[in-house]
Each structure stands twice: as C-alpha cells, then as structure tokens.
C-alpha cells in the first residue's frame, strides 16, 4: 500500500510495533533514494518540506497518545493541502496511531483526503510465524539467551504487543521461565508477575508503586512525602517502619528489569510497565477508594473511564459510580494545584452522571473558595506545559506577557480560561450562575478589563464551539471584539505574537467561519484598520480559508472604489494587490503547499490594477480601503 499510496496511517494496539513498522518502511524507501524526515509535531511537515526532493515524513501518535487530542488534530488539518499534494508528487507521509484513539477520531478524520489505513492487528497484516520467530531470535541472540528457552516456543497465537514482549522476554529470566504463556496472555502474565511480587516481595512492589505515584520520576535521595508513604504502605500491606534504604535497595535490584536510573531519579524501563502497574494498582480502587487520591494526574486523565460505551484499551481503569464523589474531590485538588490540562482534558467531565457528582462537590465549596480557584488571577504561578500543546496556545491560556523594564516573563493564570478553551459549557454556566447569585453581574467571570474579555474570546477560535462563543458574546463588552491583547508597556516579541490578534483575525487564521459570522452579527466593524491588527481577509487568503474569504468579501463596507490586499509570500515580504471593489469577490487564491515563495493570486488580467512585493510591517499583513 505504501508503494502505491503516499498518505498512510499505521494503527494498532499498545506496543504492537507501529513505530518500528513505520521506520522499517522508511528505511526501505531510503534505499530506493527517498529522504527520511522524522518529525515530532505537525508544523515540521511544513518546515522541512522540499518539493524538489523525494521525501518520506514520519510522525507518531498524530492525533493523540492515549486519547483523541482535538488540538493536535487541528494542527494536522492545517496541512491537508500537503496530504492531497503528496498523492501527486514525490512526498510520502507515514503516521502512527493507537487503534482506540483512531476509532474515536474517525468522524473527524474524514476531513483528511486520501487517508489510507494499515491495521497491524488485522488478519492480513499481523505478523506471520516466521516474522515472529525472526523478531524473537533477534532480541534473544542480542541478550545471549539460552536457545532452549525460546527456540521451541509455540507463538502462533501470540499477537498482542509481540515486538515489545520479545524485548521484555529477552531481558528477564522470570519471563523466560513462564515460556509461551507470557506471549499468549501478556497483560495477564505481567499482572500475575505483580501479584507474585506483591505477595513475596512486597518491598519491591511498594518501591515500584512509589515510582508510579511520582509520575515515573522518583528521586533517589527523597522518596515521597510521609503521608503518601503511609498510605502506600497501608494499601499494599507493608510495615510502617520499613526503612527508606530498603526501598532504595529494592529499586537498585530491579534496574534493567523494571526500572532505569537516570541522574538522581528512578524511572520505568518502558512506558508500558508504567501503564500496566498503574492498572494493576488502580484496579483495587473498588476496594480501596483512597487510591484515587494518589494516582498521578496523568494516569487519571489517560486511563480512567466510567462510561461503559467508551472506547478503551487494556490499560484502562474502571471507576465505579459509588467512587464519583471521591474522584470529583481529587479533581478539585488537581485544579487547585494547577494540573489544568490533565483535569480539563478528561472526557469524564462530559459524562452527565459524573458531572452531577462534580457539581454536588462544588456546591459544598464556599463561594469564596470557588471564586479563588476558578476566577482569581494567579500571578507568576506556573502550569505544566504538555508537549502536544502548541506554545502560542499555552501562552494564551496562561496569559504570558513580556513587559518593558522586566527581566522575566509574567504569567497571569485564571482557571476559567481552561474551562472555556476545553468547552465545558455546563461548568461555565454553573460558575456564571454562582457568581451572578452572589454579585448580581458576570464581571468576575469574564473580567472587568476589555483585554481579559478579548483574551477569553480569542480562545474560542480553537474548538469552533458555537455555544461557548455565543455565550461569551452575550455577556462581555462588545467593544472588545475590535481589540487585540497588546498594552503600551508590553514588548512586541515572538512569544507575545499572539497578542496582535483580534477575535476576528484569530478566527480567520484557524478557519473558524462560525465565529467570524457571530462576530459580524454582534456588530463587528470589519473595516477596522488599526496599525497593530493582523487583518482578517489577508489571513483568510493566506491560510486558504475560502469560505471566510467569500463571507468577508460580501460584508466589507468601503467608501473607496478600490480594495488593497496584503498577502504574505514568505517571512519577509508581502504581495500587495489592488483591485476594484466590485471585483474583489472574483479573487481566487492558488497555493502550492509547503513552498510559500510560490503563493500567487489568480484573476482575470483586466481586474488586476496593481501587484508588487513590499516588506511586511512589524505586525504582519494588512487590508486597507
């Protein structure tokens, strides 16, 4: 398929060999004269694309690691022209994706043209016996495993996580003693190993739990705070008087088998061991609900599920309904500790039975407490920035700014920004009702300054949620819809670049037509031409959002007979085109993806009055009458 098609996604379960398969294909193509270009984020597809070369791009987990990541998907979608273009040119794109993530994303992925899917676990694509034996022998020979331990194994029915299991098998004599059962029922086998460890080597098990609780980064010198250790000891049945030295010795004994030592920290030797141990420990939540309070926030975000209809994988931890209150309390603590991405990315907040439990918990909090957590400005606080969240988006959420005469950046975090960005509509309505009941207005929710209201409105551009956008427009000062986020004492540098956006230009940049229409319906003057504005039509043209171009062209009011459009053609220059007002709707925009020097306008010659290149102003492209 990869030979005949240029845009392919490889799917499979955890550790099924998706990345290895993609790299093997790429290496084979490299022998045939292709340039292999591994990338870690969608924007690098654009950065490294060269239409003069035969290139194959590799991108792992292209729409999320454990769950569907809409923000990451939107970034991929920005380059859909390249995907279509790749079918006609010397460009191949290989994506990998966990199967459960792919199936949850199927409705959205229909927007990607020419996408072909290879399922590694399908009957026609799964490894045959000869391939399995070659993989197993390669790992065992590299570790000098005794041949009698693996040559006669029956592995015909070994399909789950096979490449990864070969690596574990070759590294661990215990797994070799289990034999073929380790491959046939690996998840069960690894859980059984932890069962045995919990019974016979409880110090070792507790040490691994500590490594997991510390989110896979356990300090060698200082294990965990005392109350956490007390809870872990109680939950696994370890004597409270156990010395830290014994736990450190246990971890050192497991180096190379379960953990590795990096600098002054212990971490699991592989992410799958972290997942399996979290599942093994977390499945006890039914009998030991306090576990919910101690599982890492990332585990709760990626592994917990409560809806029986939810697509899950082997590592998921079910939470019974009678533990909803405990889980709701834990999430509130995480919000207080600014684990904001982990909490608000959780799908369980959209699940009605759990959401009711969450609201019941919030009802018990005083108004002052609620306001402090969700609405107060936390200056110079820090919120962890996940790798998959774009820098510009994170800076906008955390309200990062660089000020004149200040040496460092300043964060002004308000939790309500995450509520709005992740489209928790019911939670936003609840907070608004509590505030209005206490204060008689919504000012504390959206801020008293136009700049803050503008920031929250700009956040609406990403998810394209009409309900959230309309709710904000119904309750903010509509004068803010013509504003950007700059103030006179802010430095105009790249990390602050998003501050030049107005709500309209922000929506045009990402192609949010619904938001553009709502802004215009709310009274937005789309003829505003302030110096610090990245103007809307120019951006819509640049990103090829033709529906927005058509809408704006039909709604721009002008007192001139001409319109001038500034269109970026590279990092330093903008192409200026002037045409008659009545002809502007006839403008069509042609782009050869990934080569911005080839950007051009196509129109009838008689309609083109003037076209030339000029340096781009400090704050970007422009539109003027």
UniProtKB/TrEMBL annotation:
<dbReference type="InterPro" id="IPR049050">
    <property type="entry name" value="nSTAND3"/>
</dbReference>
<feature type="domain" description="Novel STAND NTPase 3">
    <location>
        <begin position="4"/>
        <end position="140"/>
    </location>
</feature>
<feature type="repeat" description="ANK">
    <location>
        <begin position="499"/>
        <end position="531"/>
    </location>
</feature>
<dbReference type="Pfam" id="PF20720">
    <property type="entry name" value="nSTAND3"/>
</dbReference>
<dbReference type="InterPro" id="IPR002110">
    <property type="entry name" value="Ankyrin_rpt"/>
</dbReference>
<protein>
    <recommendedName>
        <fullName>Novel STAND NTPase 3 domain-containing protein</fullName>
    </recommendedName>
</protein>
<dbReference type="InterPro" id="IPR027417">
    <property type="entry name" value="P-loop_NTPase"/>
</dbReference>
<keyword id="KW-0040">ANK repeat</keyword>
<dbReference type="Pfam" id="PF12796">
    <property type="entry name" value="Ank_2"/>
</dbReference>
<dbReference type="InterPro" id="IPR036770">
    <property type="entry name" value="Ankyrin_rpt-contain_sf"/>
</dbReference>
